[in-house]
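Hi, here's the filled form for the chain we discussed.

Project: internal
Contact: R.S.
Residues: 217
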Amino acid sequence: MPKIFEDHLTSKEKALLKSLTTPMKIQDFLDSIPYRNQDENASSLRVIRERRAHCLDGGLFGAMALRRLGYPPVVIDLLPVPGRDDDHVLAIYREHGCLGAVAKSNHVGLRFREPVYRTYRELVMSYFEVYFNVLKEKTLRGYTVPMDLSKFDHLGWEVDDSGVDAIEKKMKTLRSFSIITPAMAAGLNPVDERSYAGHTYGTDMDGVYKIGGKGLT
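And the returned structure, exactly as it came back:
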């Protein structure tokens, strides 16, 4: 495991990192910082220093922090209808043979998952009903194969924004799996008003996905 990340931290930042002793505590930290609505990517060093992150930044931060607990630094990317929503990065961890996730989101329902899912598809499907845009369209359609971030250690992704950019570029080339058929997609119901209100609680509308001048989550 590279030590360069710790070498860049102040004593206060080291103490914060040391306090993230469980996946839930990592999630609590990500939940405590604002959603960053700029398009640029930030390394885990910038996340801990600036105290803000978007989903890619947060997913990679989660993988970095999970790595310090002995988990492999693995992420997957959730894939929406092209042009209708953002993708979403999950940091994956495994306990007792089952999968869980840590994530940063501008959306209540797209964050932590307990490690109770037997397969990646099971885990991904737990996000299906709450993955929607402001037109109330359910937009989740697939997910990528897992990606081991240790293969990018030579790029210094934990401390260098350009390493994060390279990871994002590689993600766009990964093999992916569809979760529903076109016929299923055509028959989907819109999200009901009560669910929409509950799952957009606390959403920063300046950070939602935008298409044609209209904001989408």
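Let me know if anything looks off before we file it.
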